[in-house]
Design a protein that fits this description.
heterodimer; A: alpha+beta; Alpha-Beta Plaits; two-stranded antiparallel ribbon; 4 strands; B: 8-stranded mixed β-sheet; 8 strands; about 35% helix; binds thiamine diphosphate; binds iron/sulfur cluster
């Protein structure tokens, strides 16, 4: 799975940058076409949900998704054949 | 969630969205069907929340959410009723309904998004605004002591009372879940940040700063009790968090 921020919903409050234990969310630098500075993802494949969500059948950790006031964070299934990157952090 | 209505009207960084996430997560864990769950709210930013939920909801007049919820529960005790309300809605204009709903101990779950200010009308002082805090109606700092909603609910007779903040999402979800399970009135106070009207006047420039404040100033009720027993001082600006009471007074509106 892939960690994504929905740019149509995010309002750039940066609350997600505060909770992630891996610091995957980093404050963004450039405003997007709606004028909102969406956080950048630093190697999002480190999030345990990208590998293990399907295996465990539930959301692990999930702090970012819960604290995001705008319901902008989710994990999406890759399209068939899409390349995926795997990183494991201990 | 009603995905078609997103993004919602809450300002950037508003804690109401977070509390809404936690509430929905808890309701999901209960496995309640949307046909048998009703969300009731009054007026205010926080009270806009039920409009984004895919279930029956009642957006009532200012302060009267609990009165309408009582009506629903008395007429149809088989429905699950969750009240989402703000501090002004619950404690100022609806204060009387609040204490009497607690006294009657009606089987409702009340989640109060306490942002310590009247958010929707532009930042006037509310009964829960901390002393010395600035607002549009207290430009020199509030001179009144604030209401402790949890103490109020305990004194009035609610069966379950707990307080968390929008930083403690997991604990808040667990508390709401416990509240949904318990018969009788369960009151969960969720302190939330209002960057637009409270934060910018009270030295929290960004939503993050106030959430950081919740994180560093939160202190568990167990620790407060321990400090009291040891005769030590409790920091005056501490926010007491945790489960305040869980008891079994006779409740109204419980399905037989
Ligand atoms: C009978 C009545 N009185 C006053 C108002 C004006 N009013 C609208 S929202 C509001 C304050 C709501 O504050 P709160 O419940 O704290 O919600 P918040 O917006 O802070 O989440 C007030 C006083 C009203 N709509 N109806
Ligand atoms: S689920 Fe946890 S680890 Fe994964 S991105 Fe969110 S906060 Fe970080
Ligand atoms: S918490 Fe949500 S809305 Fe806020 S910056 Fe992160 S993704 Fe955007
Ligand atoms: S005014 Fe305050 S409470 Fe209302 S939506 Fe904005 S941040 Fe939230």
């Amino acid at each position: 799975m892939r960690l994504v921020i929905d740019e149509k919903r995010c309002k750039g409050c940066d609350l997600c940058t505060m909770v992630c234990p891996y610091r995957i969310f980093q404050p963004g630098k450039r405003p997007n076409m709606r004028g909102i500075v969406v956080p950048e993802l630093d190697r999002p494949e480190r999030c345990p949900n990208t590998r293990l969500q399907a295996l465990y059948g539930r959301t692990l950790c999930g702090m970012c998704q819960m604290i995001c006031p705008d319901q902008a964070i989710s994990w999406q299934e890759e399209r068939p054949g899409e390349k995926r990157k795997v990183a494991i952090e201990f | 969630m009603r995905a078609d209505r997103l993004p919602h009207i809450f300002c950037s960084g508003c804690g109401n969205g977070t509390v809404l996430n936690c509430t929905l997560n808890a309701v999901d864990q209960m496995g309640w069907k949307k046909e048998e769950t009703v969300f009731v709210s009054g007026i205010g930013c926080s009270s806009r929340a039920p409009g984004y939920i895919l279930a029956d909801s009642l957006h009532t007049t200012h302060g009267r959410a609990l009165a309408f919820a009582t009506g629903i529960k008395m007429a149809k005790p088989e429905l699950h009723v969750v009240v989402l309300t703000g501090d002004g809605d619950l404690a100022a204009i609806g204060g009387n309904h609040f204490i009497h709903a607690c006294r009657r101990n009606i089987d409702l779950s009340v989640v109060c998004m306490n942002n310590m200010i009247y958010g929707m009308t532009g930042g006037q002082v509310s009964p829960t605004t901390p002393r010395t805090a600035l607002s549009t109606t207290t430009p020199y700092g509030s001179a009144e002591p604030a209401f402790d909603l949890c103490e109020l609910a305990i004194a009035a007779g609610a069966n379950y009372v707990s307080r968390w903040t929008s930083f403690h999402v997991k604990e808040l979800t667990r508390a709401i879940l416990a509240g949904l399970r318990i018969p009788g009135l369960s009151f969960i106070e969720a302190l939330s940040q209002c960057p637009t009207n409270f934060g910018k006047r009270n030295k929290f420039r960004q939503a993050m700063d106030q959430v950081e404040y919740f994180k560093t100033h939160g202190i568990l009720i167990e620790k407060v009790q321990r400090l009291r027993e040891e005769g030590k001082d409790i920091p005056p600006d501490a926010i007491v968090l945790g489960e305040m009471i869980r008891r079994n007074r006779p409740a109204m509106g419980v399905r037989k």
